[in-house]
Records
---
Amino acid sequence: MPGIAVLLSGSGSNLQALLDAQAAGDLAGEVVLVASDRAQAYGLQRALQAGVAAAYIPLRATRGPQRQQWEQRLADIVACFEPDLIVLAGFMRVLSAAFLERFPNRVINQHPALLPADGGDTVTTTSGLVIPALRGAHVVADALRLGLPVTGCTIHRVTPRVDDGPILARAEVPIQPDDTVESLHERIKAVERRLIVATVNRLLAGE
Ligand code: GAR
């Protein structure tokens, strides 16, 4: 069974979708490791409840040699589990080229907004609307602030450029007039949870 490592920083509802699919026999792989930069990340509890190895790798500095050591430690732990796929499921750290070179073509990321295939600054929706490509850590709030009628989610291969890389899957989510960041993000995540299971299965099937 192909191994999947999941890196996360938060609640881990997407991890749960993978674990649930695995328990139901609907996942073409096995989650072998969950690792986090945050001790309080609820995703670590979800891993332990499912009997999956969980690792917290404390990050003491966001730049300089300590940041590099942290990433090296993370890469060493991930490498021990020899995963076929590494899923960034709400992982709020940017991985360097050194990390990515260690796991070539094996790291994928979930992003709670639509990203373009060409790395550009705009995305064309299925209805032909051209909207800004939202990148960074606050894209759900950005979509509301900009008054967009639609946003969505993207799964892409990870490259050293932030929120960039070949698109694997994308889905649109309409924005309601009374949406808050929480209500919109929850609807996006409901779509993401289905998309991540389908995309992982597709990748592990060699497509
Ligand atoms: C998801 O919406 C994912 O796209 C986003 O974090 C959420 C994790 O939800 N990722 C990023 O923003 C990465 N920059 P979860 O913890 O409930 O799975």
Note: The chain has a mean pLDDT of 97.
---
Amino acid sequence: IIASFQSKVLAGKRVLLTAGPTFEPIDPVRGITNLSSGKMGYAIARAAREAGAEVTLVSGPTALDTPYGVHRINVQTAQQMHDVVLSRVGGQDVFIAVAAVADWRVANASGQKLKKNGAGDVPRLDFAQNPDILAAVAALPGRPYCVGFAAESEKLLEYGEEKRKRKGIPLLVGNIGHQTFGKDENELVLFDDAGHQRLPRADKRMLGRLLVGEIARRLG
Ligand code: CTP
Ligand code: CA
């Protein structure tokens, strides 16, 4: 690892990442989000930059500082994240989808703040499916090397392999999601053509470096 960082394994490469949660509005003051902290994605962005890459980070709302030297673009919704990624993906060598993107948005979001009424009526929310950003990038002609993440609550080995194939990507990184969201440590499993491989449990900074090494090795 140390040696690979001294030799800047991603020198001259352009890396685009998504990180953090998305926020899907219900009305101007409320919305639906998830427990992703952004720590894993930011750690990978930092490690990629340290390895010599030019790094663009498309981030949902987080409480994290931008890693040194990383170009960060803030978004709220999955649709915004999708649009920014697709406008920036041209000329990228690597795309790493770390964000916990909302699968659905509120289709009947209100332009005004929803108000209680005396009768105790509750609002009804309708949902629409969001675009799959990773699948959209993976389907591009001349696509970058695509890396996906999967946070599962069970059957990680089975779902991870299935998800990698369904998304049509060469590398997928799996973890048991709800146990690691917001934590400083993580336990990752890599899925690729050759099968799966567990990475040692470590803090996210270290895992970011390990993953950058794994990606650089596969880029050749
Ligand atoms: N992803 C994405 N855009 C979406 C949903 C997911 O780019 N609208 C990306 C995530 O960033 C992650 C990968 O796809 O890299 C897998 O996300 P995940 O939620 O685990 O998979 P889904 O295909 O959404 O399936 P499900 O949530 O039903 O398990
Ligand atoms: Ca999902």
Note: The chain has a mean pLDDT of 93.
---
Amino acid sequence: RVKNRSKNDYEFFDREMKISNQRAFQIKNDLRMGLENNQFYMVYQPKVSPEEGIVTSCEALIRWKHPDFQEISPGEFIPLAEELGMINDIGDWVIENVCRQLQQWESLGYDLLPVSINLSSSQFLQVNFTEKFWSHLQTYRVHPAWIQIEITESLFIDNMKYVQQILETMKEQGIKVALDDFGTGYSSLAYLQKLDLDILKIDKSLIRGISNVSTKKEIATTIVQLGKSLGMKVVAEGVENKDEMEILCRYDIDEIQGYYYSKPLTVPAMSEILKTKKIVP
Ligand code: C2E
Ligand code: MG
Ligand code: MG
Ligand code: MG
């Protein structure tokens, strides 16, 4: 009986694998076409200062409207794009798109907010990354004060010195640097102290269920204190309800991002937010 069951499980697993492999194969195959045919677009998720109750910045997140699969989440296609080396072109498209958007908002008379851009590690590490980055800011006359970058811990593995140098120049020019998804990886104190980053983002996996799980509360408080003691701003992502929001406010968190305040918004909806900076939970 045990034997049969494991055989069925295996067949089920095998079938699932084939489906997901086929899907991954098609997605990889279609990335280039997606870029060429304008199937990608950006959405913007507000970050709120709980103290002031206003929107203080936002995160740019890529979306892909695939002709067969409808919306494919970046959680699925970004890793595939990384495998293919396509992330450089996609990442470049993202930076240009955000710069163009900032220029458009400015020319329409909106008061801007800082926009954070996610950079995948391999994109950051390509040789001409900073050149392309600055050229987009220049082309669209974007002041560096309006751009933040979100990087993850994986970037520092094996590349500490090189990455540190590049970040230093970016920071000198006024770009704020955030460490994304903190609390999921190595979360090493040693390099956090060395790096002198501006913003620490607590990963949503630590926020989910924080009101019921005391260990999560303790880890989150520790991270907030750690960030603060290093002079960083601390942001919580994935805040979905009032309970979570209230707990985090007690910890003196600087910004809150999550469905409680707002899902990622299309450009017209984000433009409305820019008019007043107000948001209703
Ligand atoms: P991330 O940078 O950690 O972004 C946060 C993710 O959490 C986003 O998912 C956002 O929509 C989602 N989120 C925000 N608030 C909540 C909430 O309250 N509840 C829940 N359940 N989720 C929430 P998204 O947009 O699907 O992006 C997933 C990941 O894909 C991002 O994680 C980031 O690593 C990557 N990504 C997205 N856009 C880009 C991009 O333009 N370039 C690169 N390189 N990566 C990107
Ligand atoms: Mg992010
Ligand atoms: Mg994150
Ligand atoms: Mg994340």
Note: Strands lie at 40-49, 54-66, 70-72, 115-118, 147-151, 176-182, 199-202, 233-236, 255-256.
